[in-house]
Design goal:
The complex is a heterodimer of chains A (548) and B (541).
Chain A lengths: L4 H39 L5 H12 L3 H19 L10 H8 L3 H13 L3 E13 L1 H9 L2 H6 L5 E3 H5 L4 H10 L3 E4 L2 E4 L7 H7 L8 H6 L3 E13 L1 H8 L7 E2 L4 H6 L6 E2 L18 H15 L3 E2 L5 E3 H4 L19 E5 L6 H10 L14 H5 E4 L4 H10 L5 E10 L11 E10 L5 H14 L5 E5 L5 E11 L3 E4 L2 E5 L1 H4 L8 E7 H9 L5 H4 L3 H6 L9
Parallel strand pairs in A: 6-7, 8-12
Antiparallel strand pairs in A: 1-5, 2-4, 3-4, 9-11, 10-11, 12-13, 13-18, 14-15, 15-16, 15-17, 17-18
Chain B lengths: L1 E6 H8 L3 H7 L5 E6 L3 E6 L9 H11 L11 E10 L9 E8 L5 H17 L7 E7 L7 E6 L4 E2 L8 E2 H7 L1 H6 L9 E5 L5 E4 L3 E2 L12 E7 L2 H17 L3 E7 L2 E3 L5 E6 H8 L5 H10 L3 E5 L3 E6 L9 H12 L19 H15 L3 E2 L5 E2 L1 H6 L22 E2 L4 H11 L6 E11 L2 E11 L5 H15 L4 E4 L5 E11 L2 E9 L1 H6 L6 E7 L9
Parallel strand pairs in B: 4-7, 4-14, 19-22
Antiparallel strand pairs in B: 1-3, 2-3, 5-13, 5-14, 6-13, 7-10, 8-9, 10-11, 11-12, 14-15, 16-18, 17-18, 20-21, 22-23, 23-27, 24-25, 25-26, 26-27
Helix pairs in contact in B: 1-3, 3-7, 9-10
The chains are: A alpha+beta (548), B alpha+beta (541).
Chain lengths: 548, 541
């Protein structure tokens, strides 16, 4: 990986420092050797200095002045490059921080990073120093309390009097501990001439570690302080890297309009991003994945020439059941299966034709269901159990023109919620009316529709629905599941179409859209569609490829 | 749905066809195979074919479908000399009786189970849970004809099936498991239906339970069938289906005189259908002869009658043939759905989306562009979520559902905003900010129309944010609107606005009231809007 700007800057500083150091060592080498020679000559008895230098100039051909001159020139050059040089011996972090105008910690960090690449070495030296505490400072001035006490009386003093001394509290204990006094019968007597101890010596010069330092630490008169000193040294590899050249332009994070306008951008070095670092996620506002699938189906049907219809979710039993030739005692019409509402709706004009169909077949070849057809039962409102209730009303309004109509809408069944059942779900419904359309055309529409939905293999099986005859169940082949029943279809019975003067046969099919959703989206639980997890909606891509 | 158990051995015996072929072909005459077991398989038949609810019935159909034995099955009925009287007092209770005697049966445990299975399936599909028809079979050798179907005192005692002590009919309704299941069918009547023999022995308490006396066992050779009910047609369908199934099993059918009329006849009914109408409906080109052959494979009798007509004899057990097209469907099934060639008609039509769907598509597109994510909550909700938690009054146009299935789903939604609150509640631990919307049907009284609601939840959600979004949304819809201070309890006072379009209240927006946020067990600031989409003035279809 490429070096950061700051790492490069540090290397660029270290290199000339190293060069300077090397130059200094080279420059100093003859001087050092000369000094050694002088010392040698003097040891052998030559004196004064002038004679010595004369010998040196004669024998070694060394000119002192040029050496001094070279040294001055180097120092000037180094100062030109790096600013005033205080300690040339090794580049400390504080010095580097000052040159780079950056905090010391940052320099340590950059150096650490460079060290891991073998471009420099970061050295560390820990030094311990000692400082007087507040108490220590007091005693450094006045002397230790035992010393003060010791000098406050002659050879003996009654203990009571000594206890009155301000330093008595600490001092008496130390007097006894050091063996300077003895106490007998309430009288204190000096038994030693109290030599100056290591502790007292150390207290005079606390910064330097001595024999008394430990004692002073124990008495909390001084405290220890650790200071860590870092210095950095460029490695040969680092030097080679600098010699190959470093781009030291300042890196810029954001490009401003001002920079673009002024042309400043041409000289800018824009910070490069690591393309492997993933971005922070942001989420698109979008359609629900299920709505997306519904819209795909709508587009398919519209492209096949179907007109979309729409209708209310509250329907009378007449339109939901009776007009579709569902007998009034059909189990689907019981309250266990259907949501009934406390509401009725007047029967439409010509309801008698439907009544006759139920009772005896009306004008058709049908026998009807027999029994008495009850108006009250037909008036009761329900939440539509299928969108077929809309289809039949559409046919009533358009009885004699060729038409292709569809609708995708929510329907209601009185079912408890579990992973595969919900009391409301979407149903797709399509009808085709045309002169001479036949059962084979119905299969044609079903095949075409399912193919466009991406189901290659479609087959048909006989089925039963109260309002179609013949009836058929299309099945599609799904990898891993086998043949899956996907909807129902048929030709509307004459009992359904005759009351409204519908002129031609009507092909009809219905399909549970949520079942398709489960197949297409791999859902295990229908509830995910209606009680969606925001994360799931966010994660599900809007676009699905055709192969899905 | 009726699930019928078909034992492989018995079915193979009756059809003479190995089970593999039966399993493969059965689905093509309208059946779903539910599961395979070691010695039998379970098949679901459609409710319009109760004649298939027994192994015998399935075998009869399959022999024809596979071309082993085609044409009408003729059933002969002897006279049993037995009579059955029906009490006039049953007229308003359970007036219809159908009966027959079947002799020469050899029962095994398996065939008794099969008969009980048929009985139960008929109770469901034809009998509508025994109300319309209830069936009883009895060992006729345990009792003495003639028989009487009477309206009895409720205190009458007898030993019900599977019990060992006498009980009154009232006790049976409360203590016998079948009594409890079906009590609702008779409990309103002063007298109960009862079938007794010449010596006043009880055969049955229809539609509840038979007597223990006439229980059918493997020793039973001859049986008496009783079908009682409220609908004559349905009762006779049940009689015909059971008689013909037992005839297939080798029984001899004998008629019974019910109030002077001999039954059953088991004679086919006649229907003349048009060959060209059939061809037109199915898209076929069959000759009358070919069509007749198809029908014979479906066990009809069929004879061409002139160029276009076919005289069809419909077996007495085919309760589903109500209309000529029912006959045509059987032609298609015999032909084989898998042999039909699918094709598309030539008529040209131009498709178009419904204006209301276009409106909602536009709403989705605008709100998606504004960064909102779509949700699709249920339309069923409850008054607690819709109003109480929202600090709103219950409006008079709310529509409660009768017999709701749970407390969660008692009304159809009148607004969408409360459901957005519920959606946020489920998702409150997902990454914020969340900006969600939903659009779709709501109802006010009988009227269905559309609304849209959007919500924002995050630490800085406030009135200004929702006002800005709402304003942008309305701008994209091209609707001019007016705002006024709102009184809506769902929002914070001074941070809420009612929306007016053409001086009509059309929605509201604002910062959700902290108490409402707490009511939904949340604790983040939320702002939201709701709009009645009738402002989009869709031309009526």
């Amino acid at each position: 990986m490429e070096l950061t700007y700051n790492e490069k800057r540090l290397l660029a500083v270290l290199k000339p420092l190293k060069d300077a150091e090397t130059a200094k060592q080279q420059a100093l080498a003859p001087i050092n050797s000369t000094v050694n020679d002088i010392i040698e000559l003097r040891n052998s008895g030559m004196n004064p200095l002038r004679d010595v230098l004369k010998v040196l100039e004669d024998t070694k051909n060394i000119a002192i002045n040029p050496i001094r001159k070279a040294l001055i020139l180097f120092e000037e050059a180094a100062e030109d490059a790096l600013g005033p040089i205080s300690h040339m011996d090794r580049p400390g972090v504080s010095y580097l921080a000052r040159i780079m105008d950056t905090p010391e910690e940052a320099v340590v960090q950059y150096a650490g990073l460079l060290q891991t690449r073998g471009l420099c070495e970061l050295h560390k030296k820990v030094t311990v120093s000692y400082n007087l505490t507040e108490e220590g400072k007091k005693y450094a001035e006045s002397g230790l309390p035992e010393r003060v006490l010791f000098e406050s009386f002659e050879s003996s003093i009654p203990i009571k009097d000594l206890q009155a001394h301000p330093q008595a509290k600490l001092g008496i204990g130390w007097l006894r501990k050091k063996g300077w006094i003895e106490i007998k019968d309430g009288v204190v007597e000096k038994v030693s001439h109290a030599p100056v101890g290591d502790d007292e010596t150390a207290l005079k010069n606390p910064e330097v570690k001595s024999a008394g330092t430990e004692e002073l630490l124990k008495r909390k008169l001084i405290e220890e302080r650790e200071t860590t000193e870092f210095w950095v040294e460029i490695t040969t590899e680092g030097e080679m890297l600098v010699e190959t050249g470093l781009d030291l332009r300042m890196e810029v994070k954001t490009l401003t309009s001002e920079q673009i306008r002024s042309g400043e951008w041409t000289g800018l070095k824009l910070r490069k991003y690591n393309v492997k670092t993933p971005p922070k996620r942001i989420f698109a506002g979008k359609k629900h994945p299920y709505q997306n699938l519904i819209d795909e189906m709508r587009e398919i049907l519209i492209s096949m020439g179907f007109t979309e219809m729409y209708g209310g979710i509250i329907q009378s039993s007449f339109w939901n059941f009776d007009a579709l030739f569902q007998p009034q005692d059909h189990p689907a019409r019981e309250m266990q299966d259907t949501f009934f509402l406390d509401m009725t709706e007047e029967l439409p004009e010509n309801f008698e034709a439907v009544r006759d169909i139920h009772e005896f077949g009306g004008s058709t070849s049908s026998t009807g269901w027999g029994g008495k057809w009850k108006e009250d039962k037909a008036k009761q409102c329900v939440l539509r159990t299928h969108t077929t209730s809309l289809s039949i009303q559409y046919l009533k309004d358009h009885p004699d023109e060729a038409l292709k109509v569809f609708c995708i809408g929510r329907v209601y069944r009185r079912e408890a919620i579990d992973p595969t059942h919900t009391p409301e779900f979407e149903q797709l419904e399509g009808i085709v009316m045309d002169s001479d359309v036949s059962f084979r055309h119905l299969m044609g529409f079903l095949k075409e529709f399912y193919h466009r939905m991406g189901f290659e293999n479609v087959r048909f099986r006989p089925a039963y629905f109260p309002y179609t005859e013949p009836s058929v169940e299309p099945e599609v082949y799904v990898e891993g599941l086998g043949w899956v029943e996907l909807g129902g279809a048929g030709i509307f019975r004459e009992e359904v179409t005759a009351p409204w003067g519908v002129k031609y046969p009507v092909l009809a099919w219905g399909l549970g859209v949520s079942r398709v959703a489960m197949l297409k989206m791999g859902l295990k639980d229908l509830r995910q569609l209606y009680k969606s997890d925001v994360d799931w909606v966010r994660e599900t891509p809007l676009y699905r490829s055709e192969e899905d | 749905m009726a699930i019928i158990t078909l034992p492989y051995k018995y079915l193979e015996l009756l059809t003479g066809v190995p089970k593999e072929i039966l399993i493969e072909r059965l689905p093509m005459i309208a059946a779903d195979i539910e599961r395979y077991e070691d010695d039998h398989f379970d098949v679901e038949f459609f409710p319009d074919r109760p004649d298939m609810f027994s192994t015998e019935g399935v075998s009869r159909a399959m022999r024809g479908f596979l071309g082993i034995e085609t044409g009408l099955c003729e059933y002969f009925v002897e006279d049993s000399g037995i009579s059955f009287s029906v009490d006039d007092k049953l007229k308003n209770i359970r007036p219809v009786l159908g009966s027959a005697v079947i002799r020469g049966l050899k029962f095994t445990e398996e065939s008794i189970q099969s008969l009980m299975g048929l009985q139960e399936a008929l109770h469901w599909a034809v009998g509508r849970g025994r109300g319309k028809v209830a069936i009883g079979v009895h060992d006729i050798d345990k009792v003495k004809p003639p028989f009487s179907y009477i309206a009895s005192e409720r205190s009458r005692k007898f030993i019900p099936l599977d019990f060992d002590c006498k009980m009154t009919m009232d006790e049976i309704l409360t203590e016998h498991p079948k009594g409890r299941d079906y009590a609702h069918l008779v409990s309103e009547f002063e007298r109960f239906p009862l079938i007794v023999d010449a010596e006043d022995n009880v055969l049955s308490f229809p539609p509840i339970i038979n007597g223990e006396l006439t229980k059918v066992t493997t020793d039973t050779k001859n049986i008496l069938l009783d079908c009682t009910g409220t609908d004559e047609k349905a009762v006779m369908v049940a009689v015909n289906i059971i008689c013909t199934a037992l005839a297939e099993a080798g029984g001899i059918i004998q008629s019974v005189e019910v109030n002077g009329t001999a039954m059953p006849s088991l004679k086919p009914s006649e229907r003349t259908v048009s060959v060209s109408e059939c061809n037109r409906l199915l898209g076929f080109d069959l000759s009358p002869r070919e069509m007749a052959e198809m029908l014979e494979r479906m066990r009809f009798g069929a004879e061409p009658d002139g160029d276009d007509k076919l005289s069809v004899q419909i077996p007495c057990y085919r309760a589903d043939i109500m209309h000529d097209w029912d006959v045509f469907e059987d032609v298609a099934i015999a032909y084989g759905f898998d042999n039909l060639k699918a094709e598309l008609p030539d008529t040209f039509t131009i498709g178009k989306a419904h204006p209301l769907q276009k409106n909602m598509s536009a709403v989705r597109s605008i709100l998606s562009g504004l960064g909102f994510l779509e949700m699709m909550p249920f339309t069923l909700s409850n008054e607690r979520v819709m109003y109480k938690l929202m600090q709103r009054e219950v409006p008079d146009y709310v529509l409660p559902v009768l017999h709701p299935i749970s407390e969660e789903q008692t009304v159809v939604r009148t607004d969408i905003l409360p459901l957005m609150m519920e959606t946020l509640k489920i998702n409150q631990h997902r990454e914020l900010p969340q900006r969600l919307f939903a659009t779709g049907d709501v109802i006010h009284g009988k009227e269905t129309f559309q609304k849209v609601s959007g919500v924002c939840m995050h630490t800085d959600a406030d009135f200004s944010e929702i006002y800005a979004f709402f304003d942008a949304f309305m701008h994209e819809l091209g609707i001019e609107y007016d705002v006024r201070e709102s009184e809506d309890g769902a929002f914070i006072e001074g941070r809420r606005a009612d929306v007016f379009v053409n001086d009509r209240l059309a929605g509201a927006f604002g910062e959700i009231h902290p108490q409402v946020i707490l009511n939904f067990d949340m604790d983040q600031p939320i702002c939201g809007f709701e709009l009645d989409l009738r402002v989009l003035q869709t031309p009526e279809e």
